[in-house]
Amino acid sequence: MNYAIIGCGRISPNHIIAAKENELNIVALCDVLPEAMENKIKKCDLPADIKQYTDYNEMIVKEKLDLVAIATESGKHAQIALDCIEKGINLIIEKPIALSLEDADAITALAEERGVKVCACHQNRFNKSIQKIREAIENNRFGKLLHGTAHIRWNRGPEYYEQAPWRGTWEQDGGALMNQCIHNIDLLRWMMGDEITEVYAYTDRLQHDYIEAEDLGIALIKFTNGAYGIIEGTTNIYPANLEETLYIFGEKGTVKAGGHSVNIIEEWLFADKKDDPNAVKTEYHENPPNIYGFGHTPLYADVIDAIKNNRRPYIDAEAGRRALELVLAIYKSAAEGQAVRLPLKSCSTMDFKGRF
């Protein structure tokens, strides 16, 4: 299966390694900066003569590609995705899938029309810890879900934003919630029943006066099933990343996943006593080298299987839209100072330009 990646920045090695581990035929790299491609060729031990493109349109015309990963700045995801789908190319799109609901809907619609598989890269769903929690949800071990919380307590300083000027802008990124926190926001929504009635939120820019968007977001969520959710996301933690934590509370169960990227089960308590909490905590304990975790390789394996067997990817475009919708609903509530009802039909990060 022929593979290429568009965007050779910070996250690209995880994609390239996952492609190699799944034995994809990596035929080309694309980035507007030739030095970024050269860097990844050395870092990921790719053939020195691998094809390099600075124009993705040229690449998707010249190369016969079965699967492409889009790992550019977020604001460019949608247009690149639509151009690839038009050519019948299956996609893995880095989070967020787009920066507007209209663009996310256009991606889904065109993919359905062209028979193309689109995966939203929320790789933490494949964490061993998260898969174990999801199994408990699907087996109704929690009983009635009561409330869940997602805490993302990280640090990002000036050097991070200086590396890529698009970061923190409304046009190409959004703030802490859209960039750093969307993975855990996705997990909370997915675990707590997916359907949301209402969101009330605050966002602020407390320390990063050199970016356009927020560095703190706090939200309350009312799920359609009667459960509640709390989101706390920030990039203001001194002096470094502290934790990414997910709690799920039900009438018959309590679970906490923690660590830097929800890779560790720290609490596992169920009324049914079907398993030993200490054994579960020992078995479902991973220590990834960075916040990106180990999820890219199984995500790639799933997409390859979805293409071969003509099924939807485990994390499809609709899943990407739901995570995007929740972040945009938080932005909208904070900007308007009132609760926002879901579903949202229309919203974009650009609606909040000039907010701070």
Explain what this protein looks like in three dimensions.
With 356 residues, the protein is of the alpha/beta class. It folds into 2 domains: 143 residues, Rossmann fold, CATH 3.40.50.720; 184 residues, 2-Layer Sandwich (Dihydrodipicolinate Reductase, domain 2). It contains 12 helices and 14 strands. Strands 13-12-11-7-10-9-8-14 form an 8-stranded mixed β-sheet. Strands 3-2-1-4-5-6 form a 6-stranded parallel β-sheet, sandwiched between helices. Helix 1 crosses helix 11, helix 5 packs antiparallel against helix 12 and helix 9 packs across helix 12. The longest helix has 20 residues. It is globular. The protein starts with a strand and ends in a 15-residue tail after the last strand. The mean pLDDT is 97.
Spell out the key features of this protein.
Rossmann fold; 8-stranded mixed sheet; 356 residues; 23% strand; alpha/beta; globular; Dihydrodipicolinate Reductase, domain 2; 2 domains
